[in-house]
Design a protein that fits this description.
Length: 400
């Protein structure tokens, strides 16, 4: 498989190799095809591109900085660790990138309401923010477990005028929030737009969210060349659904000398059933209208999953990630809850940067990698979000 093939994906049916597509009822396929056609048309409009670029610069605060974490690097062997500071974006994470794109798309399509799911709440806050900005009603479905765990983000969504719908069915986490939001969406897919929070779901969402998020990698590549020269040796990002990772990786797919590493949650250990290591232990299956690697039982039903990071506890993964693993262009590994917590505290106390628990998975891997590499090895980590939403939970967990 050549890098040119990878960059041309998905095909017109929304497939990345055997993954992706639309495994949905005929009536929903009609709606998704309309969204696809509208997106492909609207994204080419100069007015749309100009409005989005202006919002990225003056509203979000892009470009986000690329920061050399010198003290962290020196402490852990000397390999240079750089942080792409998506945590400094307005709303505190990378999610605002595609939420602004989806909200603008909804406005251009004449939609009056946006529906979505959220896990850690970052997508929910970003989408509620974008909807307030463009003047569209917003409804976010969130698992009850995550509502209790991520209360600061729930409060923000309510302040922004969003209707937060608690989901108590199933495990009351991210997968169930997706199910709940889709049920509500199908009641009126004409006036509503379902704004998926990651590179998952039926076509065109894996493509569309990737396109909006790819600004991360474009900036990082340019910034690294300006600050350090050349290309980084390794690029690292956490993977749940996979939006921040694909946003960072896309720009580097052709640069085969750059190692791309996705880090997923090993939870309480891969030998237990308390993890969300889809890329490591999943098998091909269908979930939420698309085909990807899935943690599933013998009947093809999604298994319960666990991660200390609410935004990563999903039994599937983006179809492009599934294919990138199959082709070998991206390598995937996992980090436990314990390693994640350690990295959370380490970055906080060595660099004065409190990361989201999701992002701390990538930081944990970067620290381990730095210890095995020479001083001229360079590692770029996508610090996808800030950790103010997680601080109370971490303090409780660690007994601080």
């Amino acid at each position: 498989m050549t890098t040119e093939n990878l960059l041309e994906m998905p095909n017109s049916s929304g497939f990345f190799g055997p993954y992706g597509g639309q495994f949905i009822p005929p009536e929903l396929k009609i709606v998704m095809d309309e969204i696809t056609q509208s997106y492909l048309k609207i994204r080419e409009l100069p007015a749309f591109q100009e409005e989005l670029a202006e919002l990225f610069q003056y509203y979000v605060g892009r470009p986000s900085p690329l920061y050399y974490a010198k003290r962290l690097s020196n402490k852990h062997g000397g390999a240079k660790i750089f942080l792409k500071r998506e945590d400094l974006n307005h709303t505190g994470a990378h999610k605002i990138n595609h939420c602004l794109g989806e909200a603008l798309l909804a406005k251009y399509m004449g939609k009056t309401k946006i529906l979505a799911e959220t896990g850690a709440g970052q997508h929910g806050v970003a989408l509620a923010t974008a909807c307030a900005l463009v003047g569209i009603e917003c409804e976010i479905h969130m698992g009850q477990v995550d509502i209790e765990k991520e209360h600061p983000n729930v409060s923000k969504m309510k302040v922004l005028g969003c209707n937060v719908v608690p989901v108590t069915m199933g495990t009351a986490t991210l997968k169930d929030a997706v199910d709940s939001a889709f049920i509500e969406y199908m009641k009126d897919p004409i006036s509503q737009l379902y704004a998926i929070g990651s590179v998952v779901g039926p076509h065109p969402f894996p493509m569309m969210v990737r396109d909006f998020q790819s600004i991360i990698g474009r900036e990082a590549k340019k910034q690294f060349a300006q600050q350090h020269g050349g290309l980084p040796n390794t690029v690292v990002a956490c993977v749940g659904g996979g939006s921040n990772a694909i946003g960072m990786f896309t720009e580097f797919l052709e640069d085969t000398d750059v190692e791309l590493m996705g880090v997923e949650p090993a939870g309480k250990g891969l030998e237990t059933d308390q993890h969300a290591a889809t890329m490591t232990l999943g098998t091909p299956g269908e979930l939420h209208g698309f085909k990807c690697l899935v943690l599933q039982d013998e009947q093809g039903e999604p298994l319960p999953v666990h991660s200390i990071a609410s935004g990563l506890d999903y039994p599937g993964v983006g179809p492009q990630h599934s294919y990138l693993k199959e082709t070998g262009r991206v390598n995937y590994t996992s980090v436990t809850d314990e390693e994640c917590l350690s990295a959370f505290m380490e970055l906080s106390r060595v660099e004065g940067i409190i990361p989201a628990l999701e992002s701390a998975h990538a930081v944990a891997y970067a620290i381990k990698l730095a210890q095995t590499k020479p001083k001229d090895h360079t590692i770029v980590v996508n610090l996808s979000g800030r950790g103010d939403k997680d601080t109370d939970y971490v303090i409780e967990m660690l007994g601080l």
